[in-house]
Design a protein that fits this description.
The complex is a heterodimer of chains A (about 230) and B (about 240). Chain A is mainly alpha-helical and about 230 residues long. In chain A, about 80% of the residues lie in helices and about 0% in strands. In chain A, helix 1 runs antiparallel to helix 7, helix 6 packs antiparallel against helix 8 and helix 7 runs antiparallel to helix 8. In chain B, strand 1 and strand 2 form a beta hairpin. Classes of the chains: A mainly alpha (about 230), B alpha/beta (about 240). Chains A and B meet through helix 5 and helix 6 of A and strand 6, helix 2 and helix 4 of B.
Chain lengths: ~230, ~240
């Protein structure tokens, strides 16, 4: 068995960091877009908006029932065909792997965030809603200024935990041949025949980031538990 | 005779088959202080929650200063600006300071400029003797202090009628007095009040009339003296003797 080549890891570091940047960008975008879309879905269901509420429920059920890798494939292969049909183009309209990744991850995570946020909304005591109604606050202000701030604070540890999972899931873009952290390691491993070094390095990078994020979640949980509540 | 502050006319409400409010008719005049008492489950809280539309009703009519409060089957459209409510569990917003709690509704419901809303909030917080706590969060206050903040918050909307739904029931005994003293002051300023409470001494001190409810209906209405010392109905007599010992 060959000795572990630390120099190969050091040499590979800049390229691995490029891959990591893609993973982090994908995570950040999917988190932001997923939270916005997820909040909308959660509110629609919480307020039981006619027509939209069952549609939202159906969307969430669909996204939570199908593996992410399948959603990636569906989007990558089927949406071009759908666009061809809709636009009447002669050939399928390619979306490209990067756009596929960003859009799919955001839509997928939105379903999970929606359910977490809806649980947060349901956890707010009924008295808070009643106080807002008694003070004649419009619905938009009720949710924007009173309910959502409390709900998001309460569910922030769970949202962050889901985001850690999202970060780990970004490795799935490997199937679209995107050079994320895992993709970068894979390319180097195959080029230099340093599979052990590259995959171990990637594992350590994932470990460091996820452990640090988990510590942040624990700190937030502790702060929430100590927070003054009425 | 001027228009009544609150007029309930043969109000009926059902929770499925359960007849929770039975032909409730009550008139509260401007400046009048009405205490509503009765055993648990008598419909007291449901009745006053109908006044500001937190509960709907199924039959009858309800008006506040001549304006209809929704209609049978519907909750309130838009009269809550004129009706303040203080809840048993305070329902302060825990993520906002005391001052922010009081400013929120004037700024976002009545479009009062922030500077004016701040002055208003500080005035009413001082009025309930808690102005020095304005930077604190509700969780840092005692129950009695929180309830006084809740009273100030409701007053910041400059209501014409104040509803109190068992305002001291969730408080430790030593905190009840500070809240009742605040309510006595409010009453002496001429505020129209409907208060659901078990505090009979408070009722004797403040009430113009006392309404006794049982099993969803108004059994007896009278002055505190009449109701507490010469109740006409047996159910009233039993309740008063239990409450006064």
């Amino acid at each position: 068995m060959e000795a572990f080549d630390f120099a190969a890891v050091v040499q590979a570091f800049p390229y691995l960091m490029q891959g990591l940047m893609f993973s982090l960008k994908l995570t950040a975008f999917s988190f932001a877009a997923g939270i916005v879309l997820g909040t909308g879905l959660a509110l629609v269901r919480h307020l039981d908006v006619p027509v939209l509420a069952p549609l939202a429920a159906g969307y969430i059920a669909l996204m939570r029932s199908i593996p992410l890798i399948m959603v990636l494939f569906w989007f990558f292969f089927l949406i071009p065909l759908l666009l061809q049909w809709v636009t009447g183009a002669a050939r399928p309209t390619p979306i490209g792997p990067v756009y596929t990744a960003f859009i799919t991850f955001a839509m997928f995570e939105a379903a999970y965030y929606a359910e977490i946020i809806r649980a947060g909304l349901n956890s707010i005591p009924k008295g808070q809603y009643e106080a807002c109604r008694a003070l004649a606050l419009p619905t938009s202000r009720t949710y924007g200024l009173v309910i959502l701030p409390q709900a998001l604070r309460a569910i922030s540890p769970i949202l962050l935990t889901q985001t850690i999972i999202l970060f780990q899931d970004t490795a799935l873009v490997y199937v679209l041949s995107i050079t994320d952290l895992l993709g970068a390691a894979s390319k180097l491993a195959q080029r230099d025949s340093r599979l052990v070094e590259m995959y171990l390095a990637v594992a350590v990078i994932y470990l460091v980031i996820c452990v640090a994020a988990s510590q942040l979640v624990a700190a937030i949980r502790k702060r929430n538990a100590q927070a003054v509540l009425a | 005779m001027g228009v009544a502050a609150v007029q309930l006319t043969r109000l009926n409400k059902y929770y499925d088959q359960f007849h929770v409010l039975r032909n409730i008719s009550l008139q509260v005049d401007p400046g009048e202080r009405v205490i509503v008492c009765g055993p648990s489950g008598s419909g007291k809280s449901t009745m006053i929650r109908c006044v500001n539309g937190l509960e709907s009703f199924d039959d009858g009519a309800l008006q506040v200063y001549g304006k209809d409060v929704g209609s049978p089957g519907k909750t309130l459209a838009r009269l809550r600006d004129d009706i303040g409510m203080v809840f048993q569990n305070f329902n302060l917003f825990p993520h906002l300071t005391v001052l922010e709690n009081c400013m929120l509704a004037p700024v976002h419901s009545k479009k009062v400029p922030k500077r004016d809303a701040r002055e208003l909030a500080e005035y009413y917080l001082n009025r309930v003797h808690i102005g020095n706590q304005s930077a604190k969060y509700p969780g840092q206050l005692s129950g009695g202090q929180q309830q006084r903040v809740a009273i100030a918050r409701a007053l910041c909307m400059k209501p014409q009628v104040m509803l109190f739904d068992e305002p001291t029931s969730a408080l430790d005994p030593e905190m009840v007095k500070e809240v009742l003293d605040t309510m006595v002051e409010l009453a002496s300023d001429g505020m129209t009040m409907i208060c659901v409470t078990h505090e009979m001494n408070f009722a004797k001190q403040v009430a113009d009339r006392v309404v006794f409810m049982d099993q969803g209906e108004i059994v007896e209405v009278g002055t505190p003296d009449a109701l507490f010392h010469t109740p006409q109905h047996e159910r009233t007599r039993q309740f008063i003797s239990q409450m006064l010992g």
